[in-house]
Design a protein that fits this description.
The complex is a heterotrimer of chains A (about 325), B (about 150) and C (about 500).
Chain A: H1 3-26, E1 32-36, H2 43-59, E2 63-67, H3 74-77, E3 89-95, H4 97-104, E4 115-130, H5 138-147, E5 153-157, H6 162-174, E6 179-183, H7 186-194, E7 200-204, H8 205-211, E8 215-220, E9 245-252, H9 258-273, H10 275-284, E10 287-291, H11 293-314
Parallel strand pairs in A: 1-2, 1-3, 5-6, 5-7
Antiparallel strand pairs in A: 3-9, 4-7, 4-8, 4-9, 4-10
Chain B: H1 8-27, H2 33-59, H3 72-109, H4 116-140
Chain C: H1 3-10, H2 13-31, H3 37-48, H4 53-78, H5 89-137, H6 140-157, H7 162-176, E1 179-180, E2 187-188, H8 202-218, H9 237-246, H10 248-263, H11 269-282, H12 295-319, H13 325-336, H14 343-348, H15 350-384, H16 387-404, H17 409-427, H18 432-459, H19 462-467, H20 470-500
Antiparallel strand pairs in C: 1-2
Classes of the chains: A alpha/beta (about 325), B mainly alpha (about 150), C mainly alpha (about 500).
């Protein structure tokens, strides 16, 4: 290559990079499209709606929330990387979904295709029964389940979802066999619980908060009790090592420039530090989490390993 | 029953239905147990109903629908334009594909002679509709049209 | 009674303004095929965050009820349900329009919607907590039988053979299985088309199956699409009033059906309207022309679907479980405002709830004059616009509508493909309604069946699970009634005819 050619190549590269650099400095300059891969009213929707006003406060731009449900989120995640990578299209990402779905079947994407910029909260698994259930503690529940193997029915949202995983993990830890009955979402799962169609329900702390006194929380999958649920013991306290739930984050197409991604992560981190936001999230039953670009690689590696092991045990790694 | 009426279009429909039912059954071969129950039941039901109706057709105990009048060419035209529009939406963008489709449909739907006046008026109406809906959806309802 | 102070709170100029704006916006959005009540509410929710909770609720409720009503426009004038809840309105609404009585149909739709909406809201006001417990008694098995009931109704409505109707219903059921199975997670009937992973979208299918055949046939001749019978000024209110007086029982029954179905989470306006229509047809005097333009048909469906608005709020507010999809969005909006729904809502946040309910009642009343006005405008426009412009204009709406549901160009393709296929199927005797209803009921039927099977299996007795539950038995009785009635009615007509000779 002649010197002249290479110099013009460098110039061209700089010219091409310049708008991107300028972009990052002023990002965001217009409304950001926030795509939620689920229907409205769910945890992903609510947390996004709570983020929206804080985003506006911090950046002056709006977050336009859109719903694109389908195939438990897979329909949207499969399209993520074909969207414009300029930082103005972001998408909600969820664990365990993005690890489990590709393991199970060909859903149109691989876990590594999904580029999450920030994981900002998780909803810890919670085992619930109705408030008039004979089971007052987790111990009662486990004993009853041991006596009648398979007869205890647990409702939950979705097959091979966080709820399903929690049920499988706990069954193993406690040495019991319960029957998981999947429903199309948290709403139907709750209806089944309240209507006593099932013996209990695997849900999240958010569900517990939403249903209030109608349900009794037997245990939550957290390290320490949730600040807003002081009466609900953790699984760990009661001798079962179960910590986890569904994690939610914000992702962007892979083609998004690194500095725009960094800026986005920064905004998300600042939203996560907003005391009002934290208060509202915790009141809703969410548990805060901060995994940004710095910790992302290790977090994803850990999470992938954990879920892959679980999937193999559950027998859902058939591909 | 005095008169025997043979519903031939209906018979064709039955064959289609039986085909769909059979296909549903065929492709359900590798579904899990829980996931296969419904497809197989409905597929079988569809085949059964199709056969039942075919029997009725053979016995002449059915009724024929009224024959279609009008221009079949224009009908086909609309079908082609709509399919084209749907598949060209992304490549050509909303404004591009819609402008083309609009003009095509205008021509298909107009049975009267084209005069300069109707051409102008319809064209203007089209532009207004196109622009108006575009604005409504993209700016007010915040729908990201391609 | 303390309630009246909430009525006064709802009557503030601000709240009235929101009710008015909400009804207008909702009606217009609902009228456009492809834009559903759910979308209308979702788009306008962010604007309500800065409002007082009760005002926000009133605005959202007004939009919701306006949109459910607005769906009747396209249903009557273009044979395309503007929202899924107006599917059943096409059965008699469109034939009425074709016969030159479109304006009468629109007026009836407005009056019935207001009536139904009021009934639903009154139930919400007075009987919410006890009715919520009804919602809970319906388990997966009941939903399964309810879906089966809906499917048997389909066969009895078809113009044409009942067998063809059932076949159409089966095709719709198969369509509902495309994509990832809700229970079990199988990927079914997708092949290589990743776009189908999310299944066939109901709204796109709706638009395609109903509207495309109409458009295709419209271009075939030069005959105008609709005409107005004689020079009729005004809203034909006197005529409508007469019909209403004759149909008191129909209206009341349909509104109650709508309220009860609305209370069941997951069952919305489309199912309510279908059941109400079927009951109206069944109890109609002989000589009634259901399916060919019987006013009672429009009354039944529009009263039922607007009643689901009030009914749907019952489980939403009392239990925190959304009764219908727009309720899910409203629940989310409430949570963001910090309002926790549930049994404590009525006691702790009483003022907000009661102000909202009165606001909903006011919005429903406002819908009467507004609806009539907008309806007349819509009718005049559709009649006056030359076909040459009408066809491309409506076609553009179909494209926009099917795209806007999920901002997905693939759904426009689904719409077009299904639409052309629907025209073909209509030629061989399969109409759109059974297919669409099969599509809607498919997922309810399947999940109900599989969940019931799992629960029954866990309890050790699957058969008892399906056949020994009281509510299920009641629904099964209705199913048998629905299947046997037409046969019995035909025999009765035949013997009556023989007697006359």
């Amino acid at each position: 290559m002649t010197v002249r050619l290479s110099r013009s190549l460098v110039a061209a590269a700089l010219l091409a990079a310049a708008p991107m650099l300028a972009h990052a400095a002023d990002y965001p300059e217009k409304t950001v499209s926030y795509i939620i891969p689920f229907g409205p009213g769910g945890e992903s929707d609510i947390s996004a709606r709570l983020q929206e006003p804080v985003f506006k406060k911090l950046t002056g731009q709006s977050l336009a929330i859109q719903y694109k449900p389908g195939a438990g989120g897979a329909a949207s995640w499969a399209q993520l990387n074909s969207m414009t990578g300029d930082g103005y299209t972001v998408m909600g990402t969820n664990l365990p979904h993005i690890v489990l779905q590709p393991l199970q079947k060909d859903v149109g994407y691989q876990t590594d295709d999904i580029n999450t910029v920030y994981w900002f909260h998780y909803t810890p698994d919670a085992l619930m029964v109705t408030s008039d259930s004979p089971h007052k503690t987790l111990k009662d529940f486990v004993e009853a389940a041991k006596k009648a193997s398979g007869a205890t029915t647990m409702s939950g949202s979705g097959t091979n979802s966080a709820n399903h995983l929690a049920q499988q993990q706990f069954d193993k830890l406690a040495g019991i066999k319960t029957t998981y009955v999947p429903f199309g979402g948290t709403g139907p799962s709750n209806t089944a619980l309240l209507g006593k169609q099932v013996s209990g329900s695997w849900g999240y702390t958010t569900v517990q908060m939403q249903l209030g006194d109608q349900v009794r929380c037997l245990a939550v999958a957290m390290e320490k009790r949730h600040p807003k649920l002081p009466d609900c013991p953790t699984f760990k306290e009661q001798g079962f090592d179960l910590v986890g739930g569904a994690y939610r984050g914000v992702g962007v197409p892979k083609s998004t420039p690194a500095d725009v991604q960094a800026k986005l992560a920064e905004v998300l981190a600042r939203i996560n530090a907003d005391p009002d936001f934290i208060r509202k999230m915790e009141e809703g039953g969410f548990a805060m989490l901060d995994v940004g670009p710095a910790k992302m690689a290790k977090f994803m590696a850990d999470v992938k390993a954990r879920y892959e092991a679980l999937a193999k045990e559950m027998g859902i790694s058939k591909k | 029953m005095s008169e025997r009426i043979y519903d031939l279009p209906g018979a064709v429909g039955c064959l289609i239905a039986i085909g769909i039912g059979a296909a549903a059954l065929w492709f359900s071969a590798d579904f899990s147990d829980l996931g296969a129950v419904f497809p197989r039941t409905i597929g079988a039901l569809l085949v059964l109903l199709g056969v039942l109706y075919l029997l009725l057709v053979l016995l002449g105990r059915t009724s024929r629908p009224a024959p279609l009048g009008g221009s079949h060419l224009r009908r086909a035209g609309v079908a082609i334009v709509m399919l084209g529009w749907a598949f060209l939406l992304k490549p050509l963008g909303f404004l591009g594909s819609s402008a083309l489709a609009f003009v095509a449909l205008l021509m298909l739907a107009n049975h009267y002679r084209w005069t300069a006046r109707t051409g102008l008026v319809y064209g203007a109406a089209g532009a207004v509709l196109l622009g108006g809906f575009y604005a409504l959806f993209k700016l007010v309802l915040l729908v990201p049209l391609p | 009674m303390g309630s009246f102070e909430y009525l006064l709170a709802a009557l503030t100029p601000v709240n009235l303004l929101f009710a008015l704006a909400g009804v207008v916006a909702g009606t217009v959005i609902g009228a456009l095929p492809g834009l559903t009540a759910t979308m209308a509410v979702a788009v306008l929710v962010p604007f309500t965050f800065s409002l007082e909770p009760s005002s926000a609720l009133i605005a959202l409720g007004a939009i919701y009820t306006g949109a459910i009503y607005g769906g009747a426009y396209a249903a009557i004038l273009l044979n395309t349900p503007g929202t899924p809840s107006s599917i059943a309105t096409t059965f008699d609404g469109y034939p009425m329009a074709r016969a030159g009585r479109g304006d009468l149909a629109l007026t009836l739709a407005c009056l019935a919607s207001v009536f139904g909406g009021l009934v639903g809201a009154v139930f919400l006001l007075l009987l919410a907590p006890p009715m919520a417990t009804v919602a809970l008694k319906f388990g997966p098995v009941e939903y399964f039988w309810l879906a089966v009931f809906g499917l048997t109704l389909i066969s009895s409505l078809g113009e044409g053979s009942a067998i063809k109707g059932l076949m159409g219903g089966c095709m719709g059921l198969l369509l509902s299985m495309v994509g990832v199975a809700e229970v079990g997670g199988d990927v079914r009937y997708v092949g290589d088309a990743k776009a189908l992973l999310g299944g066939i979208d109901i709204v796109s299918a709706l638009i395609g199956l109903y509207c495309m055949p109409v458009l295709i046939d419209l271009v075939a001749t030069s005959v105008a699409h609709l005409h107005a019978a004689e020079k009729v000024a005004g809203f034909r209110l006197r005529e409508a009033g007469e019909i209403l007086r004759r149909s008191k029982f129909n209206l009341a029954r349909s509104s109650i059906i709508g309220t009860v179905v609305g209370i069941l989470p997951g069952a919305g306006g489309s199912i309510a309207a279908l059941v109400a229509y079927s009951e109206a047809k069944r109890s109609a005097p002989p000589g009634a022309q259901y399916g060919k333009g019987e006013p009672g048909g429009v009354l039944a469906t529009e009263a039922a679907n607007n009643a689901t608005v009030g009914g749907g709020f019952i489980p939403t507010l009392v239990l925190g479980i959304p009764g219908t999809p727009p309720d899910a969005i409203i629940l989310g909006a409430l949570l963001v405002q910090g309002i926790r729904t549930g049994p404590t809502l009525f006691t702790q946040q009483g003022p907000i709830v009661y102000t909202f309910i009165w606001g909903l009642i006011l919005a429903t009343l406002i819908m009467l004059p507004i609806g009539l006005l907008i309806g007349r405008f819509a009718f005049r426009s559709i009649v006056a616009i030359p076909k040459a412009v009408l066809v491309p204009g409506v076609a553009m709406l179909t494209v926009l509508g099917s795209f806007s549901v999920h901002n997905n160009p693939h759904e426009v393709q689904q719409m077009a493909v299904l639409g052309v296929a629907a025209w073909g199927l209509a030629q061989v005797g399969f109409t759109a309604s059974p297919i669409v209803l099969g599509l809607i009921l498919g997922s309810i039927a399947e999940s109900g069946y599989v969940q019931g099977h799992l629960i029954g299996g866990a309890r050790g007795n699957v058969l008892a699970e399906f056949f020994a539950r009281p509510i299920s038995i009641g629904i099964m009785a209705l199913i048998l009634l629905g299947l046997l009635w037409p046969l019995w009615a035909k025999r009765r007509a035949r013997t009556a005819g023989a007697g006359l000779e």
